[in-house]
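Data availability (excerpt). The following record was deposited with the supplementary files.
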Amino acid sequence: MGIEPRWVSAPDPLVDPFGRSINYLRVSVTDRCDFRCVYCMAENMAFLPKQDLLTLEELDRLCSAFVARGVRKIRLTGGEPLVRRRKGAARERQRAS
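Predicted structure:
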């Protein structure tokens, strides 16, 4: 009497309301971008306190969860490259995945 393998099905892929498969994700590493693009910055933007921002490790876990659901391209955004320290390290971890 052996132990039966426990099969876990893969999560369902992400699908938008129009039935299109979602395989691309844009993640901002900060809410304090200097570019102020109209598609992500409201006129009266309320910024989060720094302690409420996700850590790079939390962002990595979040991105990994999306990859498990079928996302194949992740774009890290957030304005100036040096706005958030260690962003390059996060990008290298994502490339290695």
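Summary of structural features: The first strand starts at residue 24 and ends at 28.
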